[in-house]
Design brief:
The structure holds 2 protein chains of 2 kinds. Helices cover about 60% and strands about 10% of the residues of chain A. Among the domains of chain A are: about 160 residues, Four Helix Bundle (Hemerythrin (Met), subunit A) (Up-down Bundle); about 100 residues, Sandwich (Tick-borne Encephalitis virus Glycoprotein, domain 1), CATH 2.60.98. In chain A, a hairpin with a 7-residue loop joins strand 8 and strand 9. The termini of chain A are far apart. Chain A has a 4-stranded antiparallel β-sheet with strand order 1-12-11-10, with no helix packed on it. A 4-stranded antiparallel β-sheet of chain A has the order 2-3-6-7, with no helix packed on it. In chain A, helix 2 runs parallel beside helix 6. In chain A, about 50% of the residues are buried. By secondary structure, chain A is of the alpha+beta class. Chain A contains 20 helices and 12 strands. In chain B, about 70% of the residues lie in helices and about 0% in strands. In chain B, helix 2 crosses helix 3. Chain B is rod-shaped and about 95 Å long. The chains are: A alpha+beta, B mainly alpha.
């Protein structure tokens, strides 16, 4: 009964969103305020009903209502409560529902919090969002209906995919989807700018906020996904250039590029059309990624949600693309060039464009790498694989370019080729970087990297990252010095700058982290009961296998006592786990972290009868901690930047923006 | 001078067994080969046929273990990376490699990104240069911020002056 109500609510949502789209377009054309207000009510109602439908799905999950097919497939009686919550998005229909829910909520928020400066373009914003939502709702009641019933209902469900029974699944998908859906707002404003005919006064401010919000969520989401892979999949890495990972990385790259385009637009009024294109393509790519992984076009370890909705997605994406390209071709000339006589030279704006070029090329490479196997198979009939080695061939070069652009671009100024104190900052930081790089290289044990190219790349990369860090820090301190060290003024008036500094430090920390575990050290150890073996200074003693039952999982644990240089590090419990849903055993990894490296242990095999010997795959992964730290720094940078109230205001043109000028 | 020679000799003597060891491990002991860099290199470039996204090195699927054993045997037999990879491509097709081969259509996957990375900055530079050149021709000098501020102050002063006169 409740499931039917849920379905009916989704049906109502489809109708409401459809109405909202049509009436918004009409309101935009006729400039009819009251008609738009009705559309706004419809949008809000549809978000409310969607939320209600979602709550019903959650309620039914907790009620073990196996007459709903989705619940039957993704949950079971022995599932712990937290995974009842996450079962909501653990498969196709539910994750589509989560997308839809978040998109409808964010559209509503965007509509009600819109600045008065944007009032006249809001019908177009709403129309863009609701047209997407109408399709999403339509899918939710046709091909991807979470409330489909099955008869007769059984007493127990099939259970959730064992790989998804991990605490990170509680926050990773919602965070990532928040990023995807929040990108819809810049997209909608891009469409609105084209429909209206120019970028309005409040446009930049709002777009910047939502793009930053999406960026923070995407950053956290991507890293959380990596963390999940690290602790769940057991191959000692967090990133494998898997199609699903790629499809979350592409929108991240696009939104980063968008932020760098928006800042040029803010300071100089230029690159308006580029911002519009990037805002639209960023959202398009997040949809495209979803399509890739849902449709089964490319296979992936994360394809928990494959279904025949592929053709529908393809049709929708094609429609979206054609509509946007058509709109752009028809209306782009209406977006006037910047009303400025500013000359584009070798200055910060060029550096920012260069940065965008690198980011977008990276995105293009990731797209090529993800799609090329399909294309080449279609042409030659011969199957090929594109996996990590292909991407790893390009990533270091782009990383190198980005490091250099961060170091130089940040210290440049708009509208002038002159860099204040250029030599002192660049050479000084080159000197300052040496001890820092040495510390990282020695403590991170970089020199034990066996392969020469990898070793060289690591040393150069770490040194350059340290150089970039000290360069942007010195520049920031010079700017502060110009303010007579009035930090409060900087915090109050130019928080965006501080946010950017923090975020750039974060990405450099992340790059150092990536470089450090470019190549870890690993070995296989076979240990008998009571025996102690040594690897990388760790003494590992094995005390015999034990069997533990926790909730729905049977764990075959190998308790290991660890010590290093005589220090007792306590116990570690790597395990093989048996879930009721899967015949094969899964890995539960054991991780012993120190600041500079992780000892990462996976059980390869164990003696089944008495549990007297175990074969361990032991990995030493350097500098992983830095990668996890960097996400907090990146997110903090984003949050600081988003809290800047002054950015994007019209009064801050280039002169007012450059507050360090003593006039 | 002699002291230096002694030091170099000592260091050399100290390093020699390590070098010998590094070479020796692969050839003599098949069990220790997992730690060997060449083995990791080859196995890292072959895909696990039954999984998605993983190399045979990172996978413990039955098929991967077969391939890994084959790689070990061939390495012990003294074959080089290229020969071993060729052996597997002849057997399973280019699909077994984790990066596309560098011939035929597959070359596109390499050429497009590389040329984009090289040509892109050139085009951008050309664009900026042309903008600047046309700016120079039309006598729009790239002004520094200081100049703009002075200009604005002057204009402000002249506006004040006219305002004052009209009063």
């Amino acid at each position: 009964m409740l499931a039917d109500i849920g379905f009916f609510l989704l049906f109502l949502c489809t109708m409401l969103s459809g109405y909202s789209t049509v009436s918004s377009i009409a309101a935009g054309r006729m400039r009819h305020r009251r008609l738009f207000r009705s559309a706004r009510v419809a949008t809000t109602l549809s978000a409310g009903l969607c939320l209600t439908a979602s709550l019903i799905l959650w309620f039914l999950l907790f009620e073990h209502d196996y007459s709903v097919a989705y619940i039957f497939k993704n949950s079971s009686n022995d599932l712990p409560p937290i995974y009842r919550v996450t079962a909501f998005w653990s498969s196709l229909e539910g994750s589509h529902m989560l997308w839809t829910l978040l998109l409808s909520i964010y559209s509503t928020i965007a509509l009600w919090t819109a600045s008065r400066d944007n009032e006249h373009i809001m019908p177009w914003v709403n129309a863009a969002l609701q047209s997407v939502l109408t399709w999403m709702f339509y899918m939710a009641i046709t091909h991807s209906d979470p409330f489909v019933r099955m008869f007769p209902p059984l007493a127990d469900g099939q259970g959730m995919n064992a790989l998804l029974q991990n605490p990170y699944m509680a926050i990773h998908p919602p965070t990532l989807f928040t990023g995807y859906t929040a990108l819809a707002i810049p997209f909608a404003y891009a469409v609105a700018a084209l429909c209206y005919g120019d970028v309005t006064d409040g446009w930049l401010r709002t777009t910047r906020r939502w793009a930053l919000y999406a960026w923070i969520a995407l950053t956290s989401g991507v890293f959380l996904g990596g963390r999940w892979a690290y602790v769940e999949l057991g191959w000692a890495g967090y990133w494998a250039w898997d199609p699903v990972e790629n499809s979350s990385f592409i929108p991240w790259l696009m939104s980063t590029a968008l932020l760098h385009s928006l800042i040029v637009q803010e300071k100089l009024g230029q690159l308006k059309r580029l911002s519009i294109i990037l805002a639209a393509t960023g959202f398009f790519m997040s949809f495209f990624g979803t399509f890739l992984t849902r449709s089964g076009v490319v296979s992936s370890v994360h394809s928990f949600a494959e279904s025949p909705i592929g053709p529908n997605y393809l049709a929708f994406l094609a429609g979206l693309l054609v509509l946007f390209v058509g709109l752009y071709a028809w209306r782009a000339h209406a977006v006037l060039p910047a009303d400025t006589d500013k000359v584009w030279g070798v200055s910060k704006e060029s550096a920012l464009v260069m940065t965008q070029f690198l980011l977008l090329t990276f995105a293009a490479i990731v797209v090529i790498g993800t799609l090329f196997p399909i294309v080449s198979e279609a042409i030659t009939g011969q199957r090929t694989s594109i996996q990590a080695p292909y991407f790893n061939a390009f990533a270091p070069w782009i990383g190198l370019g980005l490091i250099v652009m961060i170091a130089i671009g940040n210290i440049m100024r708009y509208q002038t080729a002159k860099i204040p104190d250029a030599r002192r900052v660049l050479l000084g930081s080159a000197a300052v970087a040496i001890p820092f790089a040495l510390i990282i290289i020695i403590l991170g044990d970089v020199l034990s990297t066996p392969k020469k190219f990898a070793l060289g790349a690591q040393i150069v990369g770490i040194y350059l990252s340290c150089w970039a860090m000290s360069s942007i820090t010195m520049d920031a301190s010079h700017r502060l010095r110009d303010l007579k060290w009035n930090v409060k003024l900087m915090w109050g008036r130019n928080r965006g700058f501080i946010g950017a500094w923090v975020a750039h430090m974060g990405i450099l920390i992340a790059i150092i982290g990536f470089l450090g575990n470019y190549r870890g050290i690993s070995t296989d150890l076979t240990i008998a009961k009571g025996e102690t073996k040594e690897f990388y200074g760790y003494q590992i003693r094995f005390d015999g296998m034990i069997t533990v039952q926790s909730d729905n999982v049977t764990l075959f644990q190998a308790p290991l006592s660890l010590s290093r240089d005589g220090h007792d590090l306590g116990m570690m419990y790597p395990a093989k786990s048996k879930y009721p849903t899967k015949p094969e055993l899964l890995n539960e990894v054991g991780v012993e972290s120190s600041f500079w490296h992780d000892l990462y242990v996976v059980i390869g095999d164990f003696e089944r009868k008495a549990g007297s010997t175990v074969t361990l795959q032991v990995h030493v992964n350097p500098t992983v901690r830095l990668v996890w730290i960097s996400v907090f720094v990146l997110a903090a940078g984003g949050l600081i930047a988003i809290s800047d109230r002054h950015r994007g205001q019209k009064s801050r043109d280039v002169v007012a923006g450059e507050w360090e000028v003593k006039a | 001078m002699r002291r230096w020679l002694e030091i170099i000799l000592a260091v050399g003597l100290w390093l020699t067994p390590y070098l010998a060891l590094a070479e020796g491990v692969a050839i003599e002991n098949k069990n220790l080969i997992v730690d060997h860099i060449e083995y990791q290199d080859v196995a890292g470039d072959l895909r696990c046929p039954t999984c998605t996204g993983l190399s045979v090195l990172d996978s413990d699927a039955a098929f991967s273990i077969q391939i890994k054993n084959e790689v070990k045997e061939q390495l012990v037999a003294g074959k080089h990376k290229d020969e071993i990879l060729k052996f597997f491509t002849d057997r399973y097709g280019p699909w077994i490699l984790r990066a596309p081969p560098t011939h035929g259509v597959h070359l596109l996957a390499w050429i497009v990104p590389i040329s984009a990375l090289i040509l892109g900055p050139l085009v951008l530079w050309l664009f900026v240069w042309m903008r600047k050149k046309s700016g120079d021709e039309h006598d729009v000098v790239s002004r520094s911020v200081e100049d703009i501020v002075t200009e604005m102050n002057q204009r402000l002063a002249s506006m004040r002056a006219t305002n004052g006169s009209s009063k």
